Amino acid sequence: MPLQPADFLKHHQFGVLSTFSLSHPGYPFGSLVPYLLAEDGSIHIYISALAEHTKNIAANNKVALTISNSDKSTNPAAEARITCLADITLSQQQEALQKLYQMKFSHAEQVLQLPGFQFYQLNLTAIRLIGGFGDIRWLSPDKLDLT
Asked: Hey, is 87 helix, strand or coil?
């Protein structure tokens, strides 16, 4: 059965966010981040104003978020994964997302009290899906219903 991208994104909570590095121009910078799916199906991340990613986003808002199934695999290259290419912007749903974040993540209460953190929305431009051998394709965002 082919990988269903919406189910895959709903099932996971973490991905590698990649931004264009300011401190090392021309190179991508990636790190593990939690992500949220809002009720409207949009994808959001919660990051500090002091984070490397936030500085990079201010200079170039094109990002990639890669979510994989490889956390317990002995052959991660054979596992399903999705890369979401997006233009990222400050979210207009800060209060609603705080409530959702608190419900989804056990460490949320502590993190939500830290100053300078905000939610950013990934406005998808393309999705690269690798569902397994022979199941590799690009999807347009309008083919992905996350509601």
From this structure: strand
Tell me which long-range contacts 74-82 makes (C-beta under 8 A, separation of at least 24): 78/132, 78/133, 79/132, 80/3, 80/8, 80/130, 80/131, 80/132, 81/129, 81/130, 82/5, 82/8, 82/9, 82/127, 82/128, 82/129, 82/130
Q: What is the pLDDT of residues 47-106, one digit of tens each?
A: 999 999 999 999 999 999 999 976 666 666 667 899 999 999 999 999 999 999 998 888
| Integer Cα distance of 61 and 76 in angstroms | 29
At 9, list the tokens. 């994104």
E strands, the chain, in order: 14-20, 28-37, 43-48, 62-68, 81-90, 117-132, 135-139
User: 21 near 56, Cβ under 8 Å?
Assistant: yes
Q: Which class for 115: exposed (0-12), middle (13-18), buried (19 or more C-beta within 10 A)?
A: exposed
